[in-house]
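Troubleshooting: if your tokenizer reports a length mismatch, compare your output against this known-good record of 254 residues.
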Amino acid sequence: MHSTPVTPEGDLIRWIELPGAEPTRVYVHGLGAASGAYFTEVALHPLLAGRRSLLVDLLGFGLSDRPTGFAYTLEAHADALAAVLKAADAGPAELIAHSMGGAVAIVLAARHPELVARLVLLDANLDANPTPAPPGAGSSGIASFTEEEFLADGWERVRDAVSPQWWATMRLAGREALYRSAVHLARGTEPSMRELLLGLELPRTFLYPAEDGGLPGEAELTAAGVRVVAVPDTGHNISLDNPDALARAVVTEE
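Known-good structure output:
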């Protein structure tokens, strides 16, 4: 296991590193997840094995520290991830990033373009979702609590609403980290993650579940050079549901 401090207080982000050839692949998990649980099978897939791979846990999640004073905005997550890539001498890297991790990866590429060679986004959040939701699962459901409510007993309501698979990693998250990350993910960025993605000048691939029936704004993304791939036989967790299709999508454009 590797680590580096990413805050003035010395809070550590930790990652699992698989040795191999450059350029480096960096795997970034979603809200309440952890990269080892979500990406180990993918990183060791026969089509992808042999490349240096960093399975990074964002601050507040998985193996990383859980500071209560960190903002947990998408920008703060992106800057902390940039510190990891610099400490690991991993840039410019190929980022394979899921859900909230995809939003963080987009912001990273916009703020630190020298560190990112390519984005592979797995059903990533591209737009804000400010519509109020019943308190419960998902970023909008978590964000519907106040922080005080969530820390008191709201997290128990979320625990009872999510799948056992998600709770397996969500229970490792700092509660402030989970809540604030959800709030800022629902709030989005300015410009939006979608607008940032459209303006990036690097190879970009976006994967989404085929059963969704289409990706909102797909024509605009395609016109901007984003390769959009509908993945069969998967839900939101593409790396777990169909790692073969994910691996094929990654190597197709290399």
